[in-house]
Amino acid sequence: MTLLRSSLRRPDGQISITRPDGPTIERDTFMCGHCQYICVVRVGSGVVRGYCRMCNSPTCGKTRCSQGCTPFEARLEAWEGRRRFHKALGGY
């Protein structure tokens, strides 16, 4: 299986769409480093994506992912920290 031509040098993955009445479609994909959204690479579509130089990962191009660097793992750690804090206070 060969990688399809894409605007990314190394796409993260591939998707295969099979239909009973049509051909199998294969596309390259990548995951946004800020929100974990899976984007399908469409060469020449005009869709503007981004790249974050702070965390060295491609972004999906959504406004919240383009305005600053907040990697998904950092958000998970913050959520876990809030949960531990609430638990320490006797909450849920």
What does this structure look like?
The chain is of the alpha+beta class. The protein has one domain (13-88). It is 23% helix and 23% strand. It has helices spanning 63-66, 72-88, and strands at 13-17, 25-31, 38-40, 50-52, 57-59. The strands form 2 sheets. The chain has a 3-stranded antiparallel β-sheet with strand order 1-2-3, with no helix packed on it. It has a two-stranded antiparallel ribbon with strand order 4-5. Strand 1 and strand 2 form a beta hairpin. The longest helix is centred in the C-terminal third of the chain and has 17 residues, at 72-88. It is elongated and about 55 Å long.
Short description:
This protein is α+β, with helices and mostly antiparallel strands.
Features:
single chain, 3-stranded antiparallel beta sheet, two-stranded antiparallel sheet, 23% helix, disordered N terminus
Major sheet characteristics: 3 strands, antiparallel
Q: Round the mean pLDDT to the nearest integer and report it.
A: 80
The total of helices stands at 2
Distance between the termini: 49 Å
Radius of gyration: 18 Å
Order of helices and strands: EEEEEHH
Q: Helical residue percent?
A: 10-25%
**Uncertain regions: pLDDT < 50 for 5+ in a row?**
1-7
Tell me what portion of residues adopts beta-strand conformation. 15-25%
Shape: elongated
Sequence of strands across the biggest β-sheet: 1-2-3
Structural class: alpha+beta
Number of strands: 5
Oligomer: single chain
Q: How many domains make up the coordinates?
A: 1
